[in-house]
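Shipment paperwork, digital attachment
Item: protein structure file
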Amino acid sequence: MPSPARILLVCIGLTAAVLTGFTASAAPPSEAIIYLENLPASHPYREILLRYAELPDTEREQIGAWSRAQDTARNDDAVPTPRPTLTAEQSNLVREVAAALLTARDQPALTADDWPRLPNPAEPDNPAATILPAIGLTRELAYIASTHADTLPPDQALPLYAATAHLARQQRAGATLIEQLTGVAVEGIAHAAASRRLGEFSTDQLRELSAAWSELPPPPTLAQAFSGERGQFFLPIVENLIRPGLHALLAAPDAGLDPDAGFTRDLRLSGLVDLGDGERRISLENQSDGTSLSLREGGPAVTGIRLVNIDFERREALIRRGTQEAVIHLQSKRIVERHPAQAAARLRKLLADFEGWQPDTDKTKPGTLLERLLDRARAHPGGADGYADQLIRDYDQILAEQIAAAAEPRVGDMSRMSHADPLLRLTLPSFGRVARTLNNSATSATMLQAAIHQRLVDLGGAADHRGPSDPWAGEEGVDFIHEPTPDGGFVLRSRYEFQPDVPLTYKFAAPDAGFVRQP
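Attachment content:
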């Protein structure tokens, strides 16, 4: 069964696994190294991530225990254990991490192309088998850098906190939700570390901290964040696994291969055109009669043949006629047909992996997840294609509703977001939580600016006593709720909720600064 992190990568969300459940490496080190080695050579974090990933497990564990000691004690409400002592070599590595993040802070903003999706060679058509980004290692670097900064005087610590936050925003250039949530977690590490020491900064340093957070690369919008996940995972799963698998299972799942039944025997790739604005076409020539056909990606069938997609990165195109599929290798022009039984097997495996992650109410229903999908496809007037097309439409509609609901400060009734389709019920509830998590992060950054302004007011360094307002207050210019705490710190509270009646609350200028867990 896939790990929770991998399930979330393909939209079957376990948000808490991203925010609180990562260990030193969320993917096996060998897999993380494969991913990192495929990053562009110009990637500003590639070398330091590889350097850390290639350490022996025991080394990473010891450095990780050193860097996470404070958060571990706080989250467990336990008596803090002594922080492990690093060796001279480990201390040097900590300084290397800090130096690498400071250098990368001056590099241009990254894009999704800088965090490429790496298909698994064993299952290249299955997004669920994609090699995970080095998400756990990225989080570890953030802990190392912020913990090292805690040992430095304020003027030296401040740039390192900002560089860690910069790493977070650079991570959020990735196209997947798990990269978005990793970026949120990393920024949270930097945010909490800077917030704990807010009372130590001078007026000039507070202004520098405010400017550093203002200059971070902007995070993607909710629509942009979910669009990447849709294009990278949901659509390929539907087109490469669900649609052909259902076709095969509804037709003849155990049929043998008839060598004379192939539909591409006389076809030859004769042209490939990118017309811009998302319109791409291929031309195929039928060598037996000299006719040709032009197929538009995602468009209607021509003589029964559809162009499902074109993948320029892998130099492949997928075509389909009924239950039959073929891959066109664009470079060699070789066309390779797939047996329907292979499509059936791929779908069986995918849904078997997801079986255990269904809601409890679904687990008690008769039939497996696959059997329920087959029933829905049989009942749909358009058959397997109609069901697959409906799945995409329903996904888009509910996702739009989830994003709209996340724009409301109060958590509404999530039951209205439920859906009859068992596959969508696996996905949609988590999207609402993810959307609110991303909004929480943006609100926290505004809270930090408000907290900095409050400190400047306390120090007599601000002429205007009004700081950044709560964007969720419903009225222009309404401050965050401010409450002093007995230990000399203070709490800011937003009107935005993550859970019903639990507003976003953050503590500043105290050793236990950070998100305040509400009863």
